[in-house]
């Protein structure tokens, strides 16, 4: 401004001077730049700001108008559930939102909590994570019933947890259970919404919640109390878990699927299959399938009173 003009090359390090039109080429010599009068610059910048503000106000006005129209539609549709009940199905994205919703449901719970916990042995970190909610429920006299897989019996953390909870919690186990389910007072349920369990569904629709409660009740009647031993298979040398694996093999499932359904690792599953093959005298998977059928392990679980003799290791007959 003081010198009146500037060589174009000197403006290279500060391109914003040209972009903001604070400098412009000298009409008499294009190798030089001359400053734009300050009043002109200020007027142009203020006009640009005014245009931006006007455009923003217009967008806000349009949004308000559209929302008022949308809100007016509410008078033409059936009444929604009371606000306190929330939507019938809500997607919870992220562990923080899931935990917050669980804490809210815990605070509102007054009667019972039903849970299905798949995945085998429960890690102590998982049990500790929900311990504060369980203790709060116990303090209010809420009863809890938990379903686990039989594999969970081998985890010491679960028994420590149940000891802390006392008679407020009753636990039973099954060969395999459905995916995770937590049901509060038979009014709100939580189920996973993706395989990673980083998303969940909060269900408040009465029909859905009642259906899940019925599923739980039927599984509960089939389950074995954690304090009771697992029934004997009736076949010498074959454990209850191996009997379950045999039935799933007979259905045609792969090792990984069987392991997931029973809550064990694939390595453990294959070790049981190897022992099962040895006990039944099978040298191939195909022969193992035949032996399983011959021993009656491909059908429903049998009581301890029913027994089959094992095939002779040296022949293909079942005695």
What this model shows, in words?
With 319 residues, this protein is of the alpha+beta class. It has 3 domains: 1-60, no CATH class; 89-225, 2-Layer Sandwich (Endonuclease, Chain A); 240-295, Winged helix-like DNA-binding domain superfamily/Winged helix DNA-binding domain (Arc Repressor Mutant, subunit A, Orthogonal Bundle). Helix content is 44%, strand content 17%. It has 11 helices and 11 strands. Strands 4-10-9-8-5-6-7-11 form an 8-stranded mixed β-sheet, with helices on both faces. Strands 1-3-2 form a 3-stranded antiparallel β-sheet, with no helix packed on it. β9 and β10 form a beta hairpin. α8 crosses α10 and α9 crosses α10. It starts with 5 loop residues before the first strand and ends in a 25-residue tail after the last helix. Keywords: DNA-binding. Residues 231-296 form the HTH luxR-type domain. InterPro entries: Sig_transdc_resp-reg_C-effctor, TrmB-like, Tscrpt_reg_LuxR_C, WH-like_DNA-bd_sf. GO terms for molecular function: DNA binding.
């Amino acid at each position: 401004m003081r010198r009146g003009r500037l060589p174009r090359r000197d403006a290279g390090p500060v391109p914003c001077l040209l972009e903001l039109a604070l400098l412009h080429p000298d009409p008499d010599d294009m190798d030089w730049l001359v400053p734009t009068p300050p009043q002109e610059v200020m007027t142009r910048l203020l006009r640009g700001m005014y245009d931006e503000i006007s455009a923003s106000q217009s967008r806000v006005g349009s949004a308000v108008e559209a929302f008022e129209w949308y809100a007016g539609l509410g008078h033409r549709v059936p009444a929604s559930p009371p606000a306190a009940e929330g939507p019938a199905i809500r997607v919870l994205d992220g562990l923080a939102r899931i935990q917050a919703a669980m804490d809210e449901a815990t605070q509102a719970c007054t009667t019972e909590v039903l849970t299905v916990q798949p995945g085998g042995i429960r890690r102590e970190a998982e049990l500790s994570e929900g311990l504060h909610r369980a203790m709060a429920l116990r303090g209010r006299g809420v009863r809890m019933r938990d379903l686990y897989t039989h594999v969970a019996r081998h985890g010491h953390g679960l028994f420590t947890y149940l000891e802390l909870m006392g008679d407020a919690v009753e636990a039973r186990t099954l060969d395999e259970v459905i995916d995770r389910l937590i049901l509060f007072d038979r009014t709100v349920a939580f189920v996973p919404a993706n395989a990673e369990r980083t998303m969940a569904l909060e269900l408040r629709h009465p029909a859905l919640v009642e259906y899940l409660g019925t599923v739980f009740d039927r599984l509960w009647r089939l389950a074995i109390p954690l304090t009771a031993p697992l029934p004997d298979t009736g076949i010498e040398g074959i454990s209850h878990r191996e009997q379950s694996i045999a039935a799933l093999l007979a259905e045609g499932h792969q090792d990984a699927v069987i392991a997931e359904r029973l809550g064990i690792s694939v390595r453990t599953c294959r070790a049981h299959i190897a022992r099962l093959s040895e006990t039944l005298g099978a040298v191939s998977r195909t022969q193992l399938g035949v032996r399983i059928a011959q021993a009656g392990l491909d059908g429903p679980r049998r009581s301890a009173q029913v027994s089959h003799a094992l095939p002779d290791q040296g022949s293909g007959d079942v005695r």
